[in-house]
Amino acid sequence: MSDHSPSPFGTFAQRLSILTSPAAGDVLARGLRGIEKESLRVTLDGSLAMTPHPRVFGSALTHPSLTTDYSEALMELITPAERDPRETLARLDELHRLVYSALDGEMLWTCSMPGKLPEDDQIPIAEYGASNIGRLKHVYRHGLALRYGRTMQCIAGIHYNYSLNDETWRLLHAAEPSPATAVDYQSARYLALIRNFRRTNWLLMYLFGASPALYKPFLRGRPHTLEAFDADTLYRPYATSLRMSDLGYSNTTGQAALRPDYETLSGYLDALARAVSEPYAPYEAIGTHRDGEWVQINTNVLQIENEFYSTIRPKRVAGSGERPLHALAARGVQYVEVRCLDIDPFEPSGIALETARFLDAYLLLCALDDSPPLPAAAYAEANANFGRVTLEGRKPGLLLTRDGGDISLEDWAAELVDGIEQAARALDALAGGDAHVRAVAAQRAKLADPETTPSARVLRAMRERGQGFLAFGLAQSEAHAAHFRARPLDIASAQEAAATAARSLEEQAELERRDAGSSFDAFVADFRGYTLERFSV
Asked: Out of 3.40.50.2020, 3.30.590.20, 3.50.50.60, 3.40.190.10, which CATH number does the structure's domain 10-254+278-534 have?
């Protein structure tokens, strides 16, 4: 992964040997992974559902597993963090079955790019009730609408949360003595993971990108370089993920100059703190109020830190009312959130177990390998490679740039997969069997034959069935809806789900009782002032 040592995976192999030694036990098997999956609720013709978030699912504000993202119609299904990816996927399957037990005349859209949307200003923004935090979440989303448009916020994806057990870092820290505290060492290693990920995440776009086409009205007349697939479908012949290209989640004007420092946690925090504290002229022109109502939290580059669109984030579980930046500053990095995965339209749950196992091996390589700094030139190079693969990743002979020189995607990918296979073998040695190695072999096969990638399969299915993007998405969504509806939850699971939903509604009601009569303006002022006070730079 690093070209700054004689052997590409020398240090990685040394660290891996420490973690697979008898003294380490099963430490590598004790890492956690969880999934957050976004899905639009749509009507039976593929149009965006205009109904509120179903009350039977409980409160979108306080429910631990079922919430909404940007829109009332954009559901988010959140699994617990599990040691075994099989358990993670089983929890995701259960959540889908729960959702389908209550959706009447609606289903979940199974593609990352949306189908039929109403006019931009008619897309319903998520509501979270009358509590101060609920109102803040709504105002934040209103601000996103003004900054980026509501249409872009209807793009959906998979977030993969990954952590290694804390004992992993203790063992490595003991073998690599440094004056850093245990917390600082762990944070530094997670930032090293992020730097390696940013350099090589184009590989995930090639292997798992599944959005090579989109419904033409999505662009709202914006200029583009796409080709016509049919009257209503646009695509790029070799694209892997239009969602992650500059047509989807790209850095917008306000974020264009924002380059977080991934060398140190303090540097990262300072960069994000500046972004949530510094005004941006076009947003100042919008203001925070219209007709006496709040329309955005502030006029800064970012309203809050989560507005930063990144393919990966360092994370720490925050306490009630605690800002993400404060949690990181106080207790260090706990896990990473991988944010660039498309929904797999061929998998009912949106992600295959094989994909999760490959990700575990890939992220382990990113975590343990040498990780040189990522200065401005390297950051720009990494972004350019990523963008190139989103738009033309399957193009024969595609060249990427590594350390300023050309290298073929095929050659670089082969090197990376060799390292990922080492990680997979270590994970299989602990778990027994060869599931991780087989997952890596499946991805290696995609490098040998680009036609087996999800993006190529989408285009092939559309051609063979004579479908445009909308018809393809509708057919896949219908098939997956039938898959889940044929396997309803057992009575005990359904009762537990109903109890969880009821508790979440009670928690929201309690928040609203507590905030009754309090000033929302004062709440927002405290929220904004707290950020500036803690992170004066």
From this structure: 3.30.590.20
